[in-house]
Design brief:
The protein is an alpha+beta fold. It has helices spanning about 1-20, 35-45, 45-65, 105-175, 180-215, 225-230, 245-265, 305-350, 355-370, 375-410; strands at about 30, 70-80, 95-100, 220, 275-280, 285-295. The strands form two sheets. A four-stranded antiparallel β-sheet has the order 2-3-5-6, with no helix packed on it. A two-stranded parallel sheet has the order 1-4. Helix 1 packs across helix 2, helix 1 packs antiparallel against helix 3 (about 45-65) and helix 2 packs across helix 4. The longest helix is centred in the middle third of the chain and has 67 residues, at about 105-175. Mean pLDDT is about 85; it is low at about 1-25.
Length: about 425
């Protein structure tokens, strides 16, 4: 187990260095991909630094658990600094004793077992931290990409609104429409321009949030192709395998820690021995005599029964929590699968047939309005439908990526720590 912790620590350090080397700053105008964002976050995330420190702490705790009790030396001086014939040091008798505590009941191996179990739990927690960081980066990246798509849509709608205003002015000047159409078109243009300003601020906030997570300014463009991609086919719900997930591994590691705690509490009920050997100097005769001692505590007030009962109760709780976690993980994965499938269907529909139909309807309405075949209300209704459909498509894509990331987080496999 000691070698496992050292190897994991070295791997974590190497991974951090590699991420830092493979994640150069993104130049202005270049595309910041999701993989680059993940690498940059892995190189600078304080949560990973904390996880690495926890691994080092577990390594030190494992070393401490394997240490044996320190021996002791006792020096005693008798018949000194008294009165009468014992005044001064003329009748001094000195005793020097070397005492060695001997642990019985397998306490040292039980302590090592607890340390090993906690070390494995620490490694699993480090994997959980990494998975949580990945989820945060994906969600922040998707939020920023969605905000940029909304801004692009808002700018396009503002352009269309400006063209609608010019078309209304031409119709009014030609005497084919009422001047009120110019006012309606101008209101639509003003609202569209205001929407661009509001969306621009949301983009700045989303990009700032992403930059805080990855530890670098997001000066590059985001990958619009990744955001627009939707997995085409989702079949029946896949078989749920909660065993081996991070959540189940953490629950099982907690149970292993509790098991080790029970073994330690049981071992601590066995009293330890302290053996001693020494020498006594007798001033009166100038002789030296050997001294031997054996000490054993009497468990009159604390026999370890209460500590064993506490450890056993903690073990029962950990086992119950493991079974609760198994149920919760199964349900969470089932919901995540359904959410991801439904989000994929909604995103594919909203960004596909529905969007194409609304774009075609708006195009026909613009042509018909310029040629005098449609009224302005029909045009505004078609443009409003197009704008709503575009926003719905962006929201659906964002929900899809978020659901997919949640499913990935729930089903990521725990590191294999068996046999170590």
């Amino acid at each position: 187990m000691h070698r496992l912790i050292a190897a994991a620590l070295a791997a974590a350090s190497c991974a951090t260095i590699a991420q830092a080397q493979t994640a150069p700053p993104v130049e202005a105008g270049a595309t910041l991909s999701l993989d680059q964002a993940l690498s940059m976050a892995g190189a600078t995330a304080p949560s990973l630094d904390a996880a690495e420190a926890d691994i080092r702490t577990a390594q030190a705790a494992r070393t401490v658990a394997g240490l044996r009790p320190n021996p002791g030396i006792t020096v005693e001086a008798e018949n000194v600094a008294g009165s009468g014939i014992y005044r001064g040091t003329e009748n001094l008798e000195a005793t020097t004793t070397f005492a060695l505590p001997i642990e019985l009941g397998g306490k040292r191996s039980a302590r090592i077992g607890v340390a090993d179990a906690r070390s494995k739990r620490t490694l699993i927690q480090a994997a959980i931290t990494q998975a949580d960081l990945r989820l945060s980066v994906i969600q922040a990246y998707a939020e920023a990409a969605a905000a940029e798509q909304r801004l692009s849509t808002a700018r396009d709608q503002a352009r269309i609104a400006a063209e609608g205003l010019r078309a209304a002015e031409v119709r009014v000047q030609a005497g084919r429409a009422s001047p009120i159409e110019v006012q309606r078109a101008d209101v639509a243009r003003i609202n569209a321009d205001a929407e661009v300003e509001r969306t621009q601020r949301l983009v700045e906030v989303a990009r700032y949030s992403l930059s805080r997570i990855i530890g670098a300014p997001t000066i590059g463009n985001l990958d619009a192709g990744w955001f627009a991609h939707v997995q085409s086919a989702y079949g029946p719900m896949q078989e749920i395998e909660s065993a081996g997930t991070l959540a189940m591994a953490a629950a099982e590691a907690d149970l292993a820690v509790a098991d080790a705690g029970v073994r330690l509490a049981r071992a601590q009920r066995v009293p330890d021995l302290t053996v001693g050997a020494g020498a006594r100097y007798i001033r009166e005769t100038g002789d030296t005599a050997a001294l031997f001692s054996l000490s054993i505590p009497l468990p009159l007030f604390n026999n370890g029964r209460a500590a064993l009962a506490q450890a056993s109760s903690e073990r029962v709780r950990a086992d119950a929590q493991r079974r609760v976690t198994a149920l919760e993980v199964d349900q969470a994965i089932a919901r995540a699968q359904a959410d991801a499938a439904n989000a994929a269907t909604t995103a594919a529909t909203a960004s596909g047939p529905a969007l194409r139909a609304s774009e075609e309807a708006a195009r026909i309405a613009r042509i018909g309005y310029r040629e005098g075949k449609f009224g302005q209300l029909e045009l505004l209704d078609a443009e409003r439908t197009l704008s709503e459909t575009r926003r719905a498509a962006i929201d659906a894509l964002l929900n899809y990526h978020s659901a997919l990331a949640q499913l990935e987080r729930l089903t990521v496999r725990a590191p294999d720590l068996q046999g170590n």
